[in-house]
Here is the input.
Amino acid sequence: MRLGKILSAIRSTRGAAIAVLIALAFGAAAQVYAQFPGVPQGKWTKAAPFPQPEEELYGIAANNKMYVFGGFGAGKPVGMLWEYDPTTDKWTKKATVPRPVHHSALAQYHGKILMFGGYIYNVEPGVPGGGWEPVDNCWEYDPATDAWKALAPLPEKRGSAIAEEIGGQIYVIGGAIPEPGTKEVAIRPSRAARSVGTNEAYDPETNKWMVRSPMPTARNHAFAGAVNGKIYVIGGRLTSPFITVASNLDVVEEYDPVTNTWDGSGARTPMPTPRSGGGWATYNGKIYVAGGEIQTRQLLGAFRALEAYDPATNSWSILQSLPIPRHGVATAVVNGKIHFVSGHVTSGGAPDANVSTGSHDVYDPN
Here is the structure.
């Protein structure tokens, strides 16, 4: 009789049913974590939701604040910029980048933020795929003045690269470019189609570029971090930047700017979960890799995985997962905590599933 009353109450209001389902979901999640004794208990909290939920967002910290750039806009770049202040737990909208792009690379230098490359929407009538045309634009954003300044362009147009600063030089590595000599009718010749291992160093003091030793494994949509004077490129995608036709990687490669050499594939312990298109951040000598997406014939979705790489021991730690799966999540460390902001809760290969989240989850690694 009591069960019947409960079922009747659930049927009576849709809100009650949803509340029960949510409660069951959280209870199930707690039970799952209890079943994995090797996974440490999470230290997750919530912060102010992101005001403009989107996918393909990129985060970076500067002057004890977090900045979120980008936005895919279904291939039409949003070009947003928001500033988050952890002391007030508030978001503030800032000046939009002069030429909006998606899949750009970011780096911080002396309190300023540098943006490299990315893709624009440039399509001819009746020609598909115009949202993936790479550019060579580079910009500097000054948080103190909320202003943008153009920098020397990339030597080569590309998007989906990573950028890391070491010793006053910013290394822009990997990404995707148009297939050389493409003459397809159905797809623009300038559409990004091929991964590269290109490694180019930018000097902010001279505003000049220098070509460096290429990465052994050409890839795009990778994760990265700089630890003890070396750069680590993790995971990513082979071949095309499109998840529909690319394979996820678990490869970790180390670059030494002093000797301009790479250790090559196989020298470093692979990432436990092959993936691409997620968020990453470096804290206390470890590189935290979160989320990502996958598309196979059997599976289409986003990851919840949170894993940390320690270059000193060449080992990985599997941590308690993100509260919700997502790719294209903005990530940055502010005041010793890692912030994961917005993103898409499924793969970008599911264009009809418009499910970007405003969730702002904070992980305490201490």
Q: What stands out?
A: The CA atoms of residues 46 and 361 lie 5 Å apart. The first helix runs from residue 2 to 12.
